[in-house]
From TrEMBL:
Species, as recorded: Actinoallomurus iriomotensis
Superkingdom of the source species: Bacteria
Name under which the protein is recorded: Coenzyme F420 biosynthesis-associated protein
NCBIfam families: DUF2342_F420, putative hydrolase
Record InterPro entries: CHP03883_F420-assoc, Zinicin_2, Zinicin_2_N
């Protein structure tokens, strides 16, 4: 199990402070981000044609500790039921019975909580925004099932570091994040599909001690490879064969989502963000540039893979729209059967042939 309170405490203690701004400036940033998220939502709906079930609530603007707390809440919603299933499957014999077993579990949960908190502290200074898919349920049933969150200090830090127009940059970021809100709010099955894949991935963990030992050896090799500048990462190192298949499906859908967001923010940009070309050039350079330490951490956490997702996904979306138009591309959201595979993202003509080339699509 994970001690979530320890995760929050560790993360908020380790996270670096944001850029220094006055209280008045901070209030202005929060107000403008909320306003621009609403503006961006209108542009995204008009451009993509995705307007079914759109949640019009304002974006939630948070600081870095607030982002950590929000993500811990989301992790708990997804992971706690799964952890209980895994623990029941493993049984008490894994830790030993009696007081000793309880102590081992308690210590282990605190250590894991500290590890989760340290990772969140690292991420909390880099994330500009996200669409939170998994929120604690609203007993009244009135709250949206997802929430758009913008991390104000990170947006301010990025625009200062890049020396770009603050208003344009904030709107540009909102275009990307509002595209994610449109994806999950308009496509009724998408959230459940992602959660089902995540659940299957975690339940496919191999609990055999020999296999676990082999995984741990793989973790050591991944760390060494990442330090040397290779492609090794912790996610690949700990997977079972079944998990690799599931992760391929998850990676494909997230590559589509991220690429779609990047495509929309740049395609809409010239009409509403006058300095979009300057922003994109500087932002891309920022993505690619980092210290050796930062690149190593990003590889270990699989974040380098996320950078590739933006590029591969955006190329897929652009080629499909160029060839079959926005309505043709939007057939990607028809059902899980119409999502592109890894191979189809790399070669969009394969997806076009499979989905657009068929008069009917198989039901889910």
């Amino acid at each position: 199990m994970i001690d979530w309170n320890v995760a929050v405490q560790t993360g908020t203690r380790l996270v670096r402070p944001g850029p220094q701004v006055s209280p008045r400036e901070a209030r202005q940033v929060v107000t403008e981000l909320r306003e621009l998220s609403a503006v961006a939502q209108g542009h995204v709906r008009e451009f993509t044609g995705m307007d079914g079930g759109i949640d019009a609530s304002p974006a939630k603007v948070v600081d870095r500790p607030g982002w950590i707390r929000a993500n811990v809440d989301g992790f708990r919603v997804v992971l706690e039921p799964l952890m209980e299933q895994l623990q029941a499957r493993r049984g008490s014999s894994a830790f030993g019975g009696g007081v000793g077993g309880v102590v081992i579990q308690a210590v282990g949960s605190r250590v894991t909580g500290m590890q989760v908190g340290a990772i969140l502290a690292y991420m909390a200074s880099r994330v500009l925004g996200q669409y939170e898919l998994f929120l604690p349920p609203d007993p009244a049933g009135r709250a949206p099932t997802g929430r758009l969150t913008l991390v104000a200090p990170n947006i301010v830090h990025a625009e200062q570091e890049l020396n770009v127009d603050p208003h344009d940059f904030r709107l540009w970021v909102c275009l990307h994040e509002e595209t994610h809100r449109a994806q999950f709010a308009s496509v009724s099955w998408l959230r459940a599909y992602v959660q089902d894949q995540m659940t299957a991935f975690l339940l496919a963990s191999d609990l055999d001690p020999g296999a676990l030992l082999e995984r741990l050896r793989g973790v050591g090799e991944a760390v060494a490879d990442a330090v040397r500048g290779g492609e090794g990462n912790l996610i690949d190192a700990i997977q079972t064969p079944e998990q690799r298949e599931i992760l391929d499906r998850l990676t494909a859908v997230m590559t589509l989502a991220e690429g779609h967001g990047d495509y929309v923010m740049d395609a809409v940009g010239p009409e509403v963000v006058p300095t979009v070309a300057d922003i994109r050039a500087k932002f891309q350079h920022r993505r690619e540039g980092a210290s050796q330490f930062d690149r190593t951490i990003r590889r270990l956490l699989g974040l380098e893979m996320k950078m590739k997702q933006y590029a591969e996904g955006s190329r897929f979306v652009k080629e499909v729209i160029d060839r079959v138009g926005m309505d043709g591309f939007n057939r990607v959201w028809t059902s899980p059967n119409t999502l592109p595979t890894h191979a189809e993202i790399k070669t969009p003509s394969l997806w076009i042939g499979r989905v657009i080339g068929k008069p009917e699509l198989p039901s889910d």
